[in-house]
């Protein structure tokens, strides 16, 4: 896998990061010396492919701030003047840009702000997955570096405000209200003994187990042993597993103790067969002799 960085001030070129993504090394821009930010990653070594961006459709209301911002973005992406950009907004499927992978990456990040009000296509399809939008690492008001910040929300103990903040302007650039579990970076160690578990419940546990551990985070891991499963991951990622274990009352060990509320698994109600459903069932299986009452007894 290749990891690429970009300088948020120069915003002109993707640089391949030589160190692993979770290494603490900070790389600096060879042009201006600023700290670089993670840009994107994927199984794609940058080459000299030329990409095209086609603007398929624009559905932003004709007046107002948003339209203005979009016209300015379009002028920047395609180096158009205002008149040309306005004309492009009114036509469908227009080629708005052609260029190398770095320029394409920057332009995709500019355009993404307007999705789903616009629809665009990249050709060939862009092979790298974007990490945090590098445009938010600089404050648009004062030009200083922003920081990530979390803050308690008054009176709502399970919630937290989390986002990008400018310490110079003392203002949020963007934020979300999310649960504390979502922003908890602690790696919890969970151990579940597998002996004496009903096979249906085991299927459910293994299903959640399979979905665990994301490949971009090498600090998380899981393993299946003969008599137990062991998982080490962030709060948000183990939530599904914990809620399955709690629901079926399966004993497990967790370290450190889990401080968040574990959401309740919605109980699955057994479907009751109706007379009509049974008629359809018999129609689909000629010769079958069964009544709704009989089926409901079977469960
Ligand atoms: Zn730079
Ligand atoms: Zn600022």
Query: Which CATH-level-2 architecture of the largest domain?
Result: 2-Layer Sandwich
Biggest pleated-sheet summary = 4 strands, antiparallel
SSE succession: EEEEHHEHEEEEEHEHEEHEHH
Anisotropy-based shape: extended
Based on the model shown, name its key terms.
single chain; alpha+beta; Ribosomal Protein L30, Chain: A; Alpha-Beta Plaits; 4-stranded antiparallel sheet; extended; binds zinc ion
Please explain how this structure is put together.
This protein is of the alpha+beta class and 299 residues long. The protein folds into 4 domains: 51-130, Ribosomal protein L7/L12, C-terminal domain/Adaptor protein ClpS (Ribosomal Protein L30, Chain: A); 138-182, no CATH class; 184-255, Alpha-Beta Plaits (2-Layer Sandwich); 272-299, no CATH class. It has helices spanning 65-78, 82-90, 101-112, 180-183, 199-210, 235-247, 275-284, 292-298, and strands at residues 2-6, 15-16, 37-42, 51-58, 94-99, 118-123, 129-130, 147-152, 159-166, 171-179, 188-193, 221-224, 228-233, 253-255. The chain is extended and about 75 Å long. The mean pLDDT is 87. One zinc ion binds next to loops.
